[in-house]
Amino acid sequence: MDEEYDVIVLGTGLTECILSGLLSVEGKKVLHMDRNDYYGGDSASLNLTQLYRKFRPNQDPPAELGRDRDYAVDLVPKFIIASGELTKILVHTDVTRYLEFKQIAGSFVYRDGKISKVPSTEMEALKSPLMGLFEKRRAKNFFQFLQNWRDDDPATHQGIDLDKDSMKTVYEKFGLEPGTQDFVGHAMALHLDDDYITKSARPTYDRIILYTSSMARYGKSPYIYPLYGLGELPQSFARLSAIYGGTYMLDKPVDEIVTDSNGMFVGVRSGDETVKAKQVVGDPSYFGAGKATPDGGKMRVVEEGKVVRAICILKHPIPGTEDSDSVQIIIPQNQVKRRNDIYIAMVSSTHNVCSKDVYIAIVSTIVETDKPELEIRPGLDLLGPIYDKFVSVSPLYTPTADGRADNIFITRSYDATSHFETVVEDVHEVWKRVVGKDLVLKKREVEVEQ
Fold first, then answer.
1. Band of the pLDDT at 290, cuts 50, 70, 90?
2. What is the mean pLDDT of residues 399-415?
3. Which SUPFAM superfamilies match (predicted)?
4. Containing H/E element for 7?
């Protein structure tokens, strides 16, 4: 391997594949390596045999679950917000031509022991069982205020400055009850915890508008999901990279990150071959996640917590969701006396990810105690009888340095959220550090085909 590359990308998780696709389009010479023999890394979709082999090496999947090839079970469940950042990247890169999407049927929130649909319009707010009569009126005024807001028209501001005033101030102005604040902040603005309440209202306003505009796009829910599972996303960006000259090597062990005497990145060693490049981008597992790196150097990533996920196989839709074939349910932390929300994502055979009459529900949250499985119990309890479940606890790693000093750029682990907005934030941040300028997505209005 005498060739020198601009960038070596390690790992085929979604973040890495988006970056290698975008870097290839930018004209960079990219080599993409993965130690696994499948795409997707931590964000892969597994067939039934792979799923059982990963969690229970000595057990074959039950025959009654159907054919192996009918399954594509996501290890990290996330939905795509219809008007969100990932959709913009898919449209900008034209990756949509490799994928088909289907809408997620419903978006629900847990409140006072039961689940209800998340209202996203004034009309839905008026019909919602989540609020009493007077609260509905207050919520209607709040939603109208958000929809009518124009930055350049002070008459629409009602005395509020979104950049200076906190979300707490906005909630108080409209007199919204804590329960309403819960579903607005967590099920619509999709905040992970309540820290947002004391911060400037602008980011929360932007998030609610994103949710309602995504909702307006197709009705029913603001989320879409690729047929055949999320593993299709990294593969589609890999295809994009290949079209622009990117080179892919799966099943390739990475034995050492080679640096020079100053600690600058030189190349990657696999066995007795070393391939050179100017920069390396990779997921934390290639940089000694939590330990000294293979180059014997300093700690490059630190653990910032853990995520617990339970992949559950069901033989029925989730009770109380109007028999929806796919849903997102958010359990705001206040409802279950926690610091972090619990997320439930469910898909089914309509998304070509499992056999007919089988449903795959994944419950996840950030770990807060030494008994992670007990922490997701409120979510598991909503699922009804569980045919089988696979529980994993994964560390959340974050890089200790931005990479500019040694040309080693490390992405973050996938969090517990049930959407891709935080993944795309990481893509934007890493891109800026690697390329030295902001990632600008051209506006190309293309409807994601239903």
1. very low
2. 94
3. FAD-linked reductases, C-terminal domain, FAD/NAD(P)-binding domain
4. strand 4-10
Residue 93 inside a domain? The answer is no
Q: Which of 344, 327, 347, 418 is nearest to 378 (CA)?
A: 344
Q: Establish if 445 belongs to a structural domain.
A: no
Question: Average per-residue pLDDT in the chain?
Answer: 91
Specify whether the CB–CB gap between 263 and 255 falls below 8 A: no
Same domain for 209 and 263?
A: no
- Asked if the model's pLDDT at residue 447 lies above 50, the reply is no
**pTM for this model (two decimals):** 0.90
Helix (H) or strand (E) run with residue 362 in it: strand 359-366
> Is residue 410's pLDDT more than 50?
yes
Residues 236/98, Cβ–Cβ less than 8 Å: yes
Q: Mark whether 32 and 143 lie in a shared domain.
A: no
Helices (H), 308-420: 372-375, 377-380
Amino acid symbol at 308: V
Stated as kind and residue range, the H or E segment containing 137 is helix 133-148
User: Position 331: which residue type?
Assistant: I
CB 399 within 8 A of CB 300: yes
The pLDDT-based confidence of 41 (bands split at 50, 70, 90) is confident
Q: For the chain, what is the radius of gyration of the CA atoms? A: 23
In a domain, 66, yes or no: no
Give how many domains the chain has, as a whole number.
2
In order of 127, 149, 176, 178, 188, the CA distances from 132 in angstroms are: 10, 26, 11, 13, 19
Predicted pLDDT at 297: 55
Residue 279 lies in domain = 4-56+227-303+397-435
The residue assigned the tokens 């978006």 is 107
Nearest one of 77, 111, 55, 79 to 378, comparing CA atoms:
111
Give pLDDT tens digits for 257-282: 999 999 899 999 999 999 999 999 99
Task: Return the exposure string of 365-379: e unless at least 16 CB atoms fall within 10 Å of the residue's CB, then b.
Answer: bbbeeeebeebbebb
Domain boundary among 219, 248, 279: 219
CATH of the domain at 426: 3.50.50.60
Q: Which of 168, 193, 219 delimits the end of a domain?
A: 219
Residues 120-140: pLDDT tens digits?
Answer: 667 777 888 888 999 999 998
- Residues of 176-196 as b/e, b for ≥16 C-beta within 10 angstroms? beebbbbbbbbbbbbbbbbeb
Q: Residue 389 forms beta bridges with which residues?
A: 312
